[in-house]
Amino acid sequence: MTTQLNPKGAQNTACSACLPTAASQPAPLTPAEEIARDEQALLKIESEVCSWGDTVHYAEKPLFFQRCEGSYLYDSYGRSFLDLQMWYSAVNLGYANKRINDALKKQIDTLPQLACQYLHKEKVALAQKLVASIQRGFKAKGRVHFNVGGAQAVEDALKLVRKHTGKSRMLAFEGGYHGRTLGASAITSSYRYREHYGEFGDRAEFIPFPYCFRCPYGKQVDSCNLFCADQVARKFEHEYTGWWNPKTNKSEFGAFFVEVLQGTGGYMSAPQGYFEKLSSVLSERGILMIDDEIQMGFYRTGKLWAMEHTGVCPDVIVFGKALTNGLNPLSGIWAREELISPDKFGPGSTHSTFSSNSLGTATGLEVMRVFEEGSYDKIVPEKGKYFLALLKDLQGKHPEIGDVDGLGLALRMEMCEADGYTPSRRLADRMFQRGLEGNLNVNGQTMGLVLDIGGYNKNVVTLAPSLEITYQEMDLAHDLLDLLISESKKGM
Predict the structure, then answer these.
(1) How would you write 189-241 as a 3-class SS string?
(2) What is the mean pLDDT of residues 103-116?
(3) In this structure, is the dihedral angle defined by the CA atoms of residues 389, 394, 396 and 402, taken in order, positive or negative?
(4) What integer pLDDT is reported at residue 54 of this predicted model?
C-alpha cells in the first residue's frame, strides 16, 4: 500500500497498482505530429469559414507554406519545394528578393498610405520608366494609368476602347485568359467562367489561336503560309462574313485582345509573322490591338514586353503581376497618346481606391531599376535555351511528352498518352499532385515540386521559373521532372 495526503493533509491509502504510471501516460507528440495536428485543425476551420471560390482547392491535399526564398517554398515541416511556376509568373525576381523587400520596407516607414487623388514621387517615377521602356521597344508615345489587379486593368482597357470607338463588341482568342471580373470574363474564352453569372451580351467573338501543335485547321506550320491569319482577314471580305460593312467601311468590333503567348491557354507561341499580319488586318479596319502582358511582361520571354518579339506596336498594353515581384498588388495600362491624353481620358474616367498605391509604386520602381541594371535581355534567353534543351531531353526519354516549346523562360511541356499526341489530363494531374507530396528523392535530396497545369485540355505543364533560377536548379528541375513523369505514368 502507498500512503498519500489528501488536499487537507489527511492520509489516504491506495493500492499502488491503481496509481498512474509512466507507461500509461500518452506519449508526447513528435514535432511532426504536432504540425500535423495543428494543420488538420486549421483545415477543419478553413473548410467551414473560407470560400473555395477564391482558394480554388485544385490540390487534393492543400498545403500550408511557412516561408519562401529564391526558387523555393518551404512547408511547415521545413521541406523544400522547387517552384517552377512562381505564382503564375508574378515573382520573376525570386521569392523574398532582398532588394525589392527593402524598398517596400522603406516605403512602409515613409509614405505607406496615400489617397490616389494626390501625387507622390514614386508614382511619377515609375510611370516615367514604364513609358520610356515602351517608347524604346515600340517607338510610340503614350501614357500609363495604374490600377490594382490584372483584371481591373483589363476593365480599364475595355473602358478606354469603348470611349474611343463607341463600340462594346470585342475580338479575342480561343484559349485567351484576361481575368474573372464580369468585363474580363466576357473576353475570356472559357465558358465556365461565365456559366453561372447570367447573360453576357458583350461577350467577345473568339477566333482560333495559331496552336501549331494541334492546328485547328489541320495545317502544317512549315507549309500553311499563315493560313490562320488569312482566316481573320477573310472575315472582312464582304458583309456576309459578319464582321464588316463595305458600304460604311465599319466593323462592329472595337478592339482585339491578344496574348503573344497564351498564359492559361498553355504558353503557346504564334508562328513568325502571324502578329504582323494580324496587326495589318486590324489597323486597316480601325480595330485596336490590346496586348495583355499580365503574365508575359517584365522579361518573362526575354524582352521586357513579349510583343517586342513581333515588331508590332499595340495600341494598348495591359500589365500587372511581376511589376511588384508579387509583393503588393499594382497593375495598369499603357495607351497611345491619342487614346489616353487628358482631353480624351480625363479625371474620373476610371478609379480604384488603391490604384497607384504608394507601396506598390515604390516596389514597382525598384523592380524596374533592377531590370535596367541587369542584362535580362541576354540572361533570360540563354537560360531559356538551356532549360528548353533539358525539356527536349526529357521528351526523348518519355514518349508521353508530345510537345515542348518556349520563349525565354516561358516554357511548355504537353503531356499525352504514349502515342505522343492524344491529350492526357490524367497524367498532368498526377504530376501536379505528386509534386506537392514533397517526397521526391533525387540526387540524395528529398523535396517537392510546384507546377502549374494549363492548356485547352488541361494537359500542359506550364513552366515559369524565377528569372534568377540557377543552372544547377534547372538541372535539378530536369531530374525531378524525369522522376515525376516516371512515377506518374506507372499503372496508366
Answers:
(1) CCHHHCCCCCCCCCCCEEECCCCHHHCCCCCCCCCCCCHHHHHHHHCCCCHHH
(2) 97
(3) negative
(4) 83
Is there a contact between 380 and 411 (Cβ–Cβ < 8 Å)?
no
Query: Could you tell me what percent of the chain has a pLDDT over 90?
Result: 90
CATH of segment(s) 100-373: 3.40.640.10
Q: Dmax over Cα atoms in the chain, in whole Å?
A: 112
Count other C-beta atoms under 10 Å from residue 235's C-beta: 18
Q: What is the dihedral of CA 255, 333, 209, 261, to 10 degrees?
A: 160
From first CA to last CA, the distance across the chain in angstroms is 67
Tell me the three cell numbers of residue 253: 468590333
Distance, in Å, from the CA atom of 313 to the CA atom of 315, rounded to the nearest integer, reads 7
| DSSP three-state, residue 440 | strand
Dihedral class, residue 141 (left if φ above 0, else alpha if ψ from -120 to 50, else beta): beta
**65-96+376-488, which class in CATH?**
alpha beta
Residue of 460, 268, 491, 484 lying closest to 397 (CA atoms): 484
Nearest Cα neighbor of 181 from 152, 161, 205, 145 is 152
Helix, strand, or coil (residue 20):
coil
What residue segments make up the domains of the chain, in order of their start? 65-96+376-488, 100-373
Cell numbers that stand for 486 in this block? 516516371
SS3 state at 396: helix
Cell numbers given for 285:
479596319
Give the residue among 397, 405, 455, 400 at the shortest CA–CA distance from 422.
400
CB 162 within 8 A of CB 170: no
**290 in Cβ contact with 157 (< 8 Å):** yes
pLDDT tens column, 187-238 = 999 999 999 999 898 999 999 999 999 999 999 999 999 999 999 999 999 9
Position 346 pLDDT exceeds 90: yes
Which positions ≥6 away from 69 have C-beta within 8 Å?
94, 95, 96
